[in-house]
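Much of the work behind modern protein science is quiet bookkeeping, done one molecule at a time. Below is the pair of lines this work produces for a single protein:

***
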Amino acid sequence: MFFWNILNRPEIKDWVDILIVAYLIYKLLLLTRETRASQVLKGLGVLFVASWVSNFFDLSAFNWILTSVVNNTALVLLILFQPELRRALEQIGRGAKLDRSQVTPDESARIVSELTQALLSLSRRRVGALVVFEQKTGLKDIADTGMAIDATISGALLINIFEPNTPLHDGAVIVRGTRIVAAACVLALSDASNISRDLGTRHRAGLGISESTDAVVLIVSEETGIISMAQAGKLTRHLDAEDLGRVLSDLYHDQRPTFRDALRAVGGRLRPGKQTTDDQ
Protein backbone atom coordinates (compact mmCIF):
# COMPACT_ATOMS: atom_id res chain seq x y z
CA MET A 1 0.00 0.00 0.00
CA PHE A 2 2.85 2.36 0.85
CA PHE A 3 4.54 1.91 -2.52
CA TRP A 4 1.19 2.11 -4.32
CA ASN A 5 0.48 5.50 -2.74
CA ILE A 6 3.94 6.75 -3.73
CA LEU A 7 3.42 5.68 -7.34
CA ASN A 8 -0.04 7.25 -7.52
CA ARG A 9 0.69 10.56 -5.80
CA PRO A 10 4.47 11.07 -5.95
CA GLU A 11 5.85 14.13 -4.23
CA ILE A 12 9.37 15.55 -4.20
CA LYS A 13 10.12 13.94 -0.85
CA ASP A 14 8.98 10.57 -2.25
CA TRP A 15 11.45 10.82 -5.14
CA VAL A 16 14.19 11.84 -2.71
CA ASP A 17 13.30 8.86 -0.53
CA ILE A 18 13.45 6.48 -3.51
CA LEU A 19 16.78 7.90 -4.70
CA ILE A 20 18.32 7.52 -1.24
CA VAL A 21 17.18 3.89 -0.95
CA ALA A 22 18.37 3.14 -4.50
CA TYR A 23 21.77 4.69 -3.73
CA LEU A 24 22.11 2.65 -0.53
CA ILE A 25 21.26 -0.55 -2.38
CA TYR A 26 23.76 0.36 -5.10
CA LYS A 27 26.52 0.98 -2.55
CA LEU A 28 25.66 -2.29 -0.79
CA LEU A 29 26.01 -4.17 -4.08
CA LEU A 30 29.36 -2.49 -4.75
CA LEU A 31 30.55 -3.26 -1.24
CA THR A 32 29.69 -6.94 -1.49
CA ARG A 33 30.74 -7.42 -5.11
CA GLU A 34 33.19 -10.29 -5.60
CA THR A 35 32.86 -11.33 -1.95
CA ARG A 36 31.16 -14.23 -0.22
CA ALA A 37 28.63 -11.74 1.15
CA SER A 38 27.23 -11.22 -2.35
CA GLN A 39 25.98 -14.81 -2.36
CA VAL A 40 24.34 -14.27 1.03
CA LEU A 41 22.68 -11.12 -0.32
CA LYS A 42 21.28 -13.06 -3.26
CA GLY A 43 19.98 -15.69 -0.87
CA LEU A 44 18.16 -13.04 1.17
CA GLY A 45 16.66 -11.67 -2.04
CA VAL A 46 15.31 -15.12 -2.87
CA LEU A 47 13.77 -15.35 0.62
CA PHE A 48 11.98 -12.02 0.13
CA VAL A 49 10.57 -13.15 -3.22
CA ALA A 50 9.56 -16.53 -1.78
CA SER A 51 7.84 -14.79 1.13
CA TRP A 52 5.82 -12.63 -1.24
CA VAL A 53 4.88 -15.62 -3.42
CA SER A 54 3.84 -17.73 -0.42
CA ASN A 55 1.67 -14.87 0.84
CA PHE A 56 0.11 -14.43 -2.61
CA PHE A 57 -0.83 -18.12 -2.82
CA ASP A 58 -1.87 -18.22 0.86
CA LEU A 59 0.64 -20.89 1.90
CA SER A 60 0.20 -20.23 5.60
CA ALA A 61 2.81 -22.54 7.16
CA PHE A 62 5.51 -21.77 4.58
CA ASN A 63 4.75 -18.06 4.75
CA TRP A 64 4.98 -18.09 8.57
CA ILE A 65 8.48 -19.60 8.41
CA LEU A 66 9.66 -17.15 5.76
CA THR A 67 8.08 -14.19 7.54
CA SER A 68 9.86 -15.13 10.77
CA VAL A 69 13.19 -15.13 8.93
CA VAL A 70 12.48 -11.90 7.05
CA ASN A 71 11.35 -10.09 10.22
CA ASN A 72 14.76 -10.83 11.75
CA THR A 73 16.68 -9.74 8.67
CA ALA A 74 18.34 -6.84 10.48
CA LEU A 75 19.89 -9.19 13.04
CA VAL A 76 20.87 -11.66 10.31
CA LEU A 77 22.58 -8.89 8.33
CA LEU A 78 24.50 -7.71 11.38
CA ILE A 79 25.83 -11.21 11.96
CA LEU A 80 26.56 -12.21 8.37
CA PHE A 81 27.83 -8.86 7.07
CA GLN A 82 29.92 -7.86 10.08
CA PRO A 83 33.18 -7.45 8.08
CA GLU A 84 31.44 -5.55 5.25
CA LEU A 85 29.54 -3.28 7.67
CA ARG A 86 32.77 -2.48 9.49
CA ARG A 87 34.43 -1.65 6.18
CA ALA A 88 31.49 0.57 5.18
CA LEU A 89 31.60 2.47 8.47
CA GLU A 90 35.35 2.96 8.05
CA GLN A 91 34.78 4.38 4.57
CA ILE A 92 32.15 6.79 5.91
CA GLY A 93 34.48 7.91 8.68
CA ARG A 94 37.54 8.40 6.52
CA GLY A 95 38.82 11.92 6.36
CA ALA A 96 40.56 13.67 3.54
CA LYS A 97 43.49 12.03 1.81
CA LEU A 98 46.84 12.48 3.46
CA ASP A 99 48.09 15.97 2.64
CA ARG A 100 51.40 15.75 0.85
CA SER A 101 51.12 19.19 -0.72
CA GLN A 102 53.92 20.49 1.52
CA VAL A 103 56.34 17.88 0.21
CA THR A 104 58.59 19.41 -2.42
CA PRO A 105 59.07 17.64 -5.77
CA ASP A 106 62.72 17.04 -4.85
CA GLU A 107 61.72 15.42 -1.55
CA SER A 108 59.11 13.26 -3.30
CA ALA A 109 61.68 12.16 -5.87
CA ARG A 110 64.15 11.33 -3.09
CA ILE A 111 61.59 9.23 -1.20
CA VAL A 112 60.53 7.34 -4.32
CA SER A 113 64.15 6.68 -5.28
CA GLU A 114 65.19 5.52 -1.81
CA LEU A 115 62.18 3.25 -1.34
CA THR A 116 62.61 1.75 -4.81
CA GLN A 117 66.31 1.05 -4.35
CA ALA A 118 65.78 -0.34 -0.84
CA LEU A 119 63.03 -2.75 -1.91
CA LEU A 120 65.00 -3.85 -4.97
CA SER A 121 68.04 -4.45 -2.77
CA LEU A 122 65.98 -6.56 -0.37
CA SER A 123 64.50 -8.43 -3.33
CA ARG A 124 67.94 -9.26 -4.81
CA ARG A 125 69.12 -10.57 -1.44
CA ARG A 126 65.82 -12.38 -0.83
CA VAL A 127 65.21 -10.60 2.44
CA GLY A 128 61.53 -10.59 3.39
CA ALA A 129 59.86 -7.21 3.86
CA LEU A 130 56.36 -5.88 4.53
CA VAL A 131 55.77 -2.14 4.13
CA VAL A 132 52.31 -0.66 4.80
CA PHE A 133 51.53 2.83 3.46
CA GLU A 134 48.77 4.51 5.47
CA GLN A 135 46.10 6.24 3.40
CA LYS A 136 42.78 7.62 4.68
CA THR A 137 42.23 4.97 7.34
CA GLY A 138 44.40 5.64 10.37
CA LEU A 139 46.68 2.78 11.42
CA LYS A 140 47.66 4.02 14.89
CA ASP A 141 46.26 0.92 16.58
CA ILE A 142 48.41 -1.27 14.35
CA ALA A 143 51.47 0.95 14.79
CA ASP A 144 51.04 0.60 18.56
CA THR A 145 51.62 -3.16 18.28
CA GLY A 146 55.21 -2.55 17.12
CA MET A 147 58.19 -0.40 17.99
CA ALA A 148 57.83 3.36 17.50
CA ILE A 149 60.34 4.78 15.00
CA ASP A 150 59.03 8.17 13.80
CA ALA A 151 61.90 8.83 11.41
CA THR A 152 62.18 10.37 7.96
CA ILE A 153 61.98 7.76 5.22
CA SER A 154 65.42 6.44 4.39
CA GLY A 155 66.39 3.50 2.22
CA ALA A 156 69.25 2.59 4.55
CA LEU A 157 66.93 2.63 7.55
CA LEU A 158 64.41 0.42 5.78
CA ILE A 159 67.11 -2.09 4.83
CA ASN A 160 68.46 -2.16 8.39
CA ILE A 161 64.98 -2.72 9.83
CA PHE A 162 64.41 -5.84 7.71
CA GLU A 163 67.96 -7.20 8.09
CA PRO A 164 67.64 -10.85 9.23
CA ASN A 165 68.32 -11.70 12.86
CA THR A 166 67.76 -8.14 14.05
CA PRO A 167 65.13 -7.17 16.65
CA LEU A 168 62.78 -5.44 14.18
CA HIS A 169 62.99 -7.60 11.06
CA ASP A 170 59.81 -9.55 11.85
CA GLY A 171 56.50 -7.80 11.30
CA ALA A 172 55.43 -4.83 9.22
CA VAL A 173 56.70 -1.27 8.82
CA ILE A 174 54.06 1.44 8.91
CA VAL A 175 54.69 4.49 6.71
CA ARG A 176 52.63 7.64 7.17
CA GLY A 177 53.33 10.31 4.59
CA THR A 178 57.08 10.97 4.55
CA ARG A 179 57.87 9.23 7.84
CA ILE A 180 58.39 5.68 9.02
CA VAL A 181 56.09 5.53 12.02
CA ALA A 182 56.76 2.07 13.46
CA ALA A 183 58.36 -1.29 12.77
CA ALA A 184 57.78 -4.90 13.84
CA CYS A 185 54.02 -4.30 13.78
CA VAL A 186 51.61 -7.22 13.98
CA LEU A 187 48.99 -7.54 11.22
CA ALA A 188 45.92 -9.76 11.19
CA LEU A 189 46.10 -12.46 8.52
CA SER A 190 43.58 -12.63 5.70
CA ASP A 191 40.97 -15.33 6.30
CA ALA A 192 40.37 -15.84 2.57
CA SER A 193 40.31 -19.54 1.79
CA ASN A 194 41.41 -19.24 -1.83
CA ILE A 195 44.90 -17.83 -1.28
CA SER A 196 47.61 -19.80 -3.06
CA ARG A 197 49.51 -22.23 -0.84
CA ASP A 198 52.73 -20.87 -2.31
CA LEU A 199 52.18 -17.65 -0.35
CA GLY A 200 53.18 -17.48 3.30
CA THR A 201 52.09 -15.45 6.31
CA ARG A 202 53.77 -12.27 5.05
CA HIS A 203 51.50 -12.17 1.99
CA ARG A 204 48.47 -13.18 4.05
CA ALA A 205 49.20 -10.34 6.47
CA GLY A 206 49.56 -7.86 3.61
CA LEU A 207 46.28 -8.98 2.09
CA GLY A 208 44.59 -8.89 5.50
CA ILE A 209 45.39 -5.22 6.16
CA SER A 210 44.43 -4.30 2.59
CA GLU A 211 41.05 -6.00 3.04
CA SER A 212 40.15 -4.16 6.23
CA THR A 213 41.63 -0.73 5.36
CA ASP A 214 42.56 1.32 2.31
CA ALA A 215 46.28 0.88 3.02
CA VAL A 216 48.71 0.12 0.20
CA VAL A 217 51.12 -2.71 0.97
CA LEU A 218 54.41 -3.67 -0.69
CA ILE A 219 55.70 -7.16 0.05
CA VAL A 220 59.07 -8.77 -0.67
CA SER A 221 59.07 -12.55 -0.59
CA GLU A 222 61.78 -14.12 1.53
CA GLU A 223 61.70 -17.36 -0.49
CA THR A 224 61.73 -15.96 -4.04
CA GLY A 225 62.54 -12.26 -3.74
CA ILE A 226 59.39 -11.44 -5.75
CA ILE A 227 57.95 -7.99 -5.02
CA SER A 228 54.16 -7.86 -4.68
CA MET A 229 51.58 -5.18 -3.99
CA ALA A 230 48.36 -5.64 -2.00
CA GLN A 231 45.50 -3.18 -2.22
CA ALA A 232 41.74 -3.59 -1.67
CA GLY A 233 42.18 -7.31 -1.07
CA LYS A 234 43.96 -7.87 -4.40
CA LEU A 235 47.54 -8.95 -4.89
CA THR A 236 49.70 -7.91 -7.85
CA ARG A 237 52.88 -9.97 -8.09
CA HIS A 238 56.19 -9.78 -9.97
CA LEU A 239 56.67 -6.01 -9.86
CA ASP A 240 59.92 -4.88 -11.48
CA ALA A 241 61.85 -1.63 -10.94
CA GLU A 242 59.68 0.27 -13.41
CA ASP A 243 56.43 -0.91 -11.86
CA LEU A 244 57.68 -0.19 -8.37
CA GLY A 245 58.76 3.31 -9.31
CA ARG A 246 55.40 4.01 -10.91
CA VAL A 247 53.46 2.79 -7.86
CA LEU A 248 55.55 4.86 -5.43
CA SER A 249 55.39 7.91 -7.69
CA ASP A 250 51.59 7.72 -7.68
CA LEU A 251 51.69 7.58 -3.89
CA TYR A 252 53.99 10.56 -3.40
CA HIS A 253 53.17 12.83 -6.30
CA ASP A 254 49.96 14.88 -6.39
CA GLN A 255 48.38 13.45 -9.53
CA ARG A 256 44.76 13.16 -10.45
CA PRO A 257 44.76 9.41 -11.16
CA THR A 258 44.03 7.54 -7.95
CA PHE A 259 46.08 4.64 -6.67
CA ARG A 260 43.30 2.32 -7.76
CA ASP A 261 43.87 3.62 -11.30
CA ALA A 262 47.59 2.97 -10.87
CA LEU A 263 46.82 -0.57 -9.75
CA ARG A 264 44.74 -1.14 -12.86
CA ALA A 265 47.45 0.37 -15.02
CA VAL A 266 50.12 -1.87 -13.54
CA GLY A 267 47.87 -4.92 -13.80
CA GLY A 268 46.97 -4.02 -17.40
CA ARG A 269 50.58 -3.85 -18.55
CA LEU A 270 51.83 -6.97 -16.81
CA ARG A 271 54.15 -8.95 -19.01
CA PRO A 272 54.02 -12.77 -19.11
CA GLY A 273 54.93 -14.10 -15.70
CA LYS A 274 53.19 -11.29 -13.80
CA GLN A 275 49.74 -11.70 -12.35
CA THR A 276 47.09 -9.62 -10.70
CA THR A 277 44.70 -11.74 -8.73
CA ASP A 278 42.30 -11.78 -5.81
CA ASP A 279 43.53 -15.08 -4.46
CA GLN A 280 47.29 -14.97 -4.71
User: Anything to note?
Assistant: The CA atoms of residues 243 and 266 lie 7 Å apart. The chain is about 50% helix and 15% strand.
